[in-house]
Amino acid sequence: MINKKVNSVQEALQGIEDNMTIMLGGFGLCGIPENSIAELVQKGTTNLTCISNNAGVDDFGLGLLLQKRQIKKMISSYVGENAEFERQMLSGELDVELTPQGTLAEKCRAAQAGIPAFFTPAGYGTEVAEGKEVREFNGKMHIMELAYKADFAIVKAWKGDEAGNLIFKGTARNFNAPMAGAAKITIAEVEELVPVGSLDPNQIHIPGIMVQRIFKGEKFEKRIEQRTTRKRE
């Protein structure tokens, strides 16, 4: 019987060291691996290169690692909700690689599929294209993007089994799905961990072959990044 379950977040994150490149799933504060990020803060791992759609907020998500100066480079798409990120970027303390959102997703998916590079029109004619190969396809210019190379991918799922099969809930599917299997080692943090055979195969989003370690998170805050309301009429 395949069993990829580990008993704690500490065991799950074994092998993550300074200067590594880590993918972290989530979109805003939706579907982020909260327990794993908190453990990285506790471990004090430094000089990390983090690949994530955005960098959390000042006091939550990747913002916690930024507060402790544990990230040396951030590869992201949108970072507008984090004042500390902005300060470090503008001061030159943090190396930042801004990437179009669709390109970031495809660079993850390409790594997951074993595709070394692909061409996309996104970013052509901008500073995103600087130093990259350019080719024309069907009368439109494209730039070549390389798939990411990461040491670890840490994803968060709603439910998983001990063989590593994952089910995401709602919009938490986001970047978690293309990041699973896109690094040398994928760690899955789940809200509910069940025995093998408990999940309906038709409901599984990511097969266990993409996951090396899986553990049940202790708690999830599930913060709302922005709440907009109106006065009751």
Automatic annotation (TrEMBL):
Keyword Heme found: no
Keyword Nucleotidyltransferase included in the entry's annotation: no
Superkingdom field: Bacteria
Stretches of the chain forming a coiled coil according to its record: none
Pfam families, sorted: CoA_trans
This protein's UniProt keywords: Transferase
GO molecular function: transferase activity
NCBIfam families: pcaI_scoA_fam (TIGR02429)
Family note: Belongs to the 3-oxoacid CoA-transferase subunit A family.
Name of the protein: CoA transferase subunit A
Organism: Flavobacterium buctense
